[in-house]
């Protein structure tokens, strides 16, 4: 029995739309119900808690006897009721022995309902009622686990009960707050419809457009080719006429292949030797391409600095892979990292990868931000991409002085931020390079805290499989690197976990990982007033970095002499001091806008350190105390740099 592919396609599309809508609606209802329920519970709890604080702040006995205080307090409770969007808020005293409650006051959100409850649940109105389990819990002074649903004459509501205490901490009354459940249900349905209706419209439009395109581009040409194949079989290839399909896509390729088939059959036996030779040649070319690619994308790369560490590792699933990465330092001192995954495998993917990687490095090195670089490369690839290949890419630039990581994503997998913990960084998904011009890839940024990092990877990591065909997945990835304290450790921890998980199973995708770990910037600059009173601030900063031992004493004495000379003689109006620890060397730089003066050319003092400790110290003492003293005049500023080799017995930061 024959079945129409066209009809089957329509059935599949319609079924997919229905399933997508039903799934989205169900997920939306469940999510919204949970979210709105939690929100309602928070509102009910918060309103009751705040109201209890208001009641506890007034004289409870006077509240029941003073009309003025009662009216004022009721207005306050009504304001709380409206602020928290509660249906009702009520103060009452339960009587367990008589199984009733005596209301003190009740307020409502709605004006009409407020008038009603002010009378029906007003001062000293008693209502027979057995206390609920939640009211018993609140009356005992225990915290409620959650809000509870209650149906009464005023409707179905989420309720929360909170105790009111006197000044001695004794519970004297209860505060109840209600949030209407029908409001919640209406919100759930409305929010679900806001998702489902646009989804249906979009899916229908996409379906119709795709169906028309598929009929013209696929089904009609396939029917033509099918009919011609039947004729070819019955006629044995005699009087074969070309199909003349000129669509410029895969259908034309199929038609052209079919037209060539008759000649290929006749020449098949004679071509076996030629085909074998070509296959051998192709294998040789793949091996050469693999060696070339390993030069472009090393199997392992390490790039370190005092502020960061980068470690990357790549492993192709086949001889020539489509993954690539890059990391390099720009002239401005910032560092760039890139990772990408090219569609397909083989020589074509390797060539496309090499072109994309080279252009990205050039544009990032020129100073473009990640989004500008990706958009520029995308336009270039789209203009010269006859094979229709594409690549997902994630690119980032780290400002090593601030820890700000600027990034842009072109359809690549989400990176992971790791340090004290590990979690995915939510980034704009973007569009893969080489698909559409004017992709509109956008920049994002995140601040890497000191001793934290980012791990970027290709989907060959999370899609690694074991012998049971289970995927490695996101959670195992986070778990593998959450305790890592460096880039190399993060990559190697992940590598060990992946291959232990795979347990010898063959991997079908390339595997590439790059980690960038930021160790921070220890440099700090302090602006000081050009007055001797600022010496105390200078002393605090110097001892913070050098410690309070002999190191700190010498560092401060040298800094004090420099600062006093600047204040007394330079006529400076602006003084800045920077402190930076470079391993065991403390570097302190003074910059001022005073008159030009090079202290290094001054005569060294003849006095010993102990003689100069009590004052009168000169430039010579600075040269005695500091291991290195350098001066330069730059941008109309005197810049004096002192370096101290710290002993380590009292060093600060």
What does this structure look like?
It contains 16 helices and 22 strands. The protein is an alpha+beta fold. It has a 6-stranded antiparallel β-sheet with strand order 3-2-1-6-5-4.
Secondary-structure blueprint of this entry?
Layout: H1 5-56, H2 60-63, H3 67-83, E1 88-95, E2 100-108, H4 111-120, E3 125-128, H5 133-139, E4 148-152, E5 155-165, E6 171-180, H6 181-235, H7 250-296, E7 300-304, E8 308-315, E9 323-329, E10 335-342, H8 346-365, H9 370-383, E11 391-398, E12 404-410, E13 416-418, E14 422-424, E15 443-447, E16 452-457, H10 459-462, H11 473-481, H12 487-502, E17 511-518, E18 524-528, H13 535-546, H14 550-569, E19 575-582, E20 585-592, H15 609-612, H16 619-625, E21 628-634, E22 637-645
Helix pairs in contact: 1-3, 1-6, 6-7, 7-8, 8-9, 11-12, 13-14, 14-16
Q: What keywords describe this structure?
A:
single chain, 653 residues, alpha+beta, six-stranded antiparallel beta sheet
Silhouette: flat
User: Going across the major beta sheet, what is the strand order?
Assistant: 3-2-1-6-5-4
Multimeric state: single chain
Strand content: 15-25%
Q: What composes the largest sheet?
A: 6 strands, antiparallel
**Separation, N- and C-terminal Cα atoms:** 82 Å
Integer-rounded radius of gyration: 38 Å
Low-pLDDT residue intervals, each spanning 5 or more residues: 609-616
Number of helices in the DSSP assignment: 16
Count of individual beta strands: 22
Structural class: alpha+beta
- What integer is the average pLDDT? 81
The amount of helix comes to: 40-55%
């Amino acid at each position: 029995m024959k079945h129409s592919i066209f009809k089957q396609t329509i059935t599949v599309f319609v079924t997919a739309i229905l399933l997508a809508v039903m799934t989205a609606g169900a997920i939306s209802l469940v999510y919204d119900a949970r979210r709105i329920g939690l929100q309602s519970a928070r509102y009910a709890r918060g309103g009751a808690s705040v109201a209890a604080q208001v009641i506890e702040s007034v004289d409870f006995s006077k509240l029941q006897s003073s009309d003025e205080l009662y009216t004022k307090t009721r207005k306050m409770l009504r304001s709380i009721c409206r602020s928290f969007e509660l249906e009702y808020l009520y103060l009452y005293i339960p009587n367990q022995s008589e199984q009733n409650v005596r209301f003190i006051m009740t307020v409502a959100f709605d004006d009409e309902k407020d008038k009603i409850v002010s009378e029906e649940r007003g001062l000293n109105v008693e209502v027979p009622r057995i206390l609920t389990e939640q009211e018993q819990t609140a009356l005992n002074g225990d915290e409620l686990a959650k809000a509870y649903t209650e149906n009464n004459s005023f409707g179905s509501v989420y309720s929360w009960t909170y105790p009111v205490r006197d000044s001695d901490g004794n519970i004297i009354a209860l505060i109840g707050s209600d949030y209407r459940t029908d409001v919640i249900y209406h919100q759930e349905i409305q929010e679900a419809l806001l998702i489902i209706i646009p989804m249906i419209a979009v899916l229908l439009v996409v379906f119709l457009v795709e169906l028309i395109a598929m009929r013209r581009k696929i089904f009609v040409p396939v029917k033509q080719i099918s009919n011609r194949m039947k004729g070819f079989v019955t006629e044995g290839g005699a009087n074969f006429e070309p199909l003349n399909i000129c669509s410029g896509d895969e259908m034309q390729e199929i038609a052209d292949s079919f037209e060539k088939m008759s000649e290929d059959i006749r020449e098949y036996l004679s071509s076996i030797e030629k085909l074998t030779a070509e296959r051998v040649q192709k294998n040789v070319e793949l091996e050469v391409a693999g060696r070339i690619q390993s030069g472009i994308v090393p199997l392992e790369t390490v790039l370190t600095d005092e502020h960061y560490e980068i470690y990357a590792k790549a492993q192709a699933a086949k001889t020539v892979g489509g993954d690539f990465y890059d990391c390099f330092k720009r002239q401005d001192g910032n560092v760039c990292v890139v990772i990408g995954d090219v569609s397909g495998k083989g020589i074509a993917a390797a060539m496309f990868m090499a072109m994309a990687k080279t252009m990205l490095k050039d544009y990032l090195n020129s100073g473009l931000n990640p989004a500008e670089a990706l958009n520029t490369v995308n336009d270039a690839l789209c203009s010269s991409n006859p094979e229709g290949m594409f690549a997902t890419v994630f690119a980032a630039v780290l400002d090593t002085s601030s820890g700000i990581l600027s990034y842009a994503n072109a359809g690549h997998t989400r990176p992971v931020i790791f340090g004290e913990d590990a979690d995915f960084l939510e980034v704009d998904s973007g569009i893969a390079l080489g698909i559409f011009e004017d992709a509109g890839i956008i920049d994002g940024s995140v601040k890497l805290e000191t001793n934290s990092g980012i791990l970027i990877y290709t989907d060959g990591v999370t899609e690694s499989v074991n012998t049971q065909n289970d995927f490695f997945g996101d959670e195992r990835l986070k778990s593998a690197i959450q305790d890592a304290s460096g880039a190399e450790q993060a990559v190697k921890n992940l590598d060990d976990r992946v291959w232990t998980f795979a347990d010898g199973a063959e991997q079908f995708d390339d595997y590439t990982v790059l980690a960038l770990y930021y160790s921070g910037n220890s440099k700090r600059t302090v602006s000081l007033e050009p007055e001797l009173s600022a010496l105390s601030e200078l002393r605090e900063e110097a001892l913070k970095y050098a410690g309070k031992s002999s190191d700190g004493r010498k560092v401060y004495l040298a800094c004090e002499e420099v600062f006093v000379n600047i204040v007394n003689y330079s006529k400076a109006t602006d003084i800045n001091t920077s402190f930076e620890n470079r391993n065991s060397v403390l570097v302190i730089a003074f910059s001022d806008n005073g008159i030009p003066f090079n202290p290094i050319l001054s005569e060294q003092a003849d006095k010993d350190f102990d003689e100069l400790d009590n004052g009168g110290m000169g430039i010579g003492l600075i040269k005695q105390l500091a291991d290195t003293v350098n001066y330069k005049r730059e941008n109309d500023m005197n810049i004096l740099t002192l370096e101290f080799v710290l002993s380590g017995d009292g060093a600060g930061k």
